[in-house]
Amino acid sequence: MSTTPPASSWTSIRLVAAREIATRIKTKSFIVTNVIMLIVAIGGCIVASLVIDDGPSTEQIAVQGVSSEARDAIGATGDQIGVDLEFSDDADARERAASGDVTAAIIAQPDGGFRVYSENELDPKVEAAIKGGVSTSAVSGALSQAGVDPQSVHRNSTVTVERTKAATPHESERIGLAYVGSLLMFMTIFGGGMAVAVGVVEEKVSRIVELLLATVKPAQLLWGKILGIGIVQIASTLVLAAAGLVTALATDLLTIPSVAYAMVGVSAAWLLLGFLFFAALYAATGAMVSRQEEINSASWPLMVVAMGALYAGIFGVYSPDTTLMRVLAWIPPFSSTVVPVRVATGYAGWLEVVGSLLVMTVVTALAVWLAGRIYRRSVLLTGSRVSWKTALGI
Fold first, then answer.
1. pTM metric for this prediction
2. Rounded CA gap, 339 and 330, in Å?
3. Is there a single domain that holds both residue 199 and residue 330?
4. Is there a single domain that holds both residue 14 and residue 84?
């Protein structure tokens, strides 16, 4: 009589993972949640592209009786403070300003001064450009009458400001991507980790785990669950990120694709390790409790660590090269959000990226080993919460 040979470890893991994937993608809550998130991501990018300032706009200025020297001085002052002014001679300058056809009207007065008109309150930058330009023009005229070269005075009074560190190309876009990446990573880690913990508890309470462990080993069941839930969670996150990325590129919210692709690649590596680290520990936590109501109280230390990693990434956006951020870049799991931010802002070198990635890999492997040990010793114990001493076998 022939017997069927036992399935290989990979086959068992794959079957468990396929079961998890099929179960979760068919739930109504999963479909509705992901559709809503896609709408929010796409809509958010479209709205942001409409409201974000793309740079200084050209302000139309009507002039009457204003010399070319004064106009040049006003325009040059506007360039220095970030406002582009375009002048047009108009006999009806005041009326055009009153009707809103132009931003402002500058009219020379008989006494040598100027009067400025605008329909509403004048933009502070435009006002500063006009006043500064008029003053510069007046001083230059006075110097010329006194026989002093205005250009010589200008050269002697010029102040040049330089950065001691070169600006990172497209820094704002990189920072934005790193910020969004940290949020998506937290959503994936927390959502996926809790899904793993809840799934373990559900199988434990319903005693389905006893039937499953009759055909597969505990490690195979644990890895299959983490793999299945991880594929669903990470795939939905990547679809969400891709939809937002395509929309951002299409609306010119993100102008340099290479920046986006580089950041997505770096974030994806840390997302995978971060998810594996937390999912394994959440699975162990789920195995130690006997009721779903106990999950939150049992997993709060993991929640605190996950929140700490999220806030480390967010705060790192504003201070990426502080001593604290440089240290956290080497400490898992904080490195999973800090390193992408430091890469985005140009402060992390390849040594830091590769080195911290290796450290995170080793720590994740230890977390997986520890979770497997706890899972094997706890998943079949029901009635009350399993103690750490029992779970660890010490």
1. 0.69
2. 8
3. yes
4. no
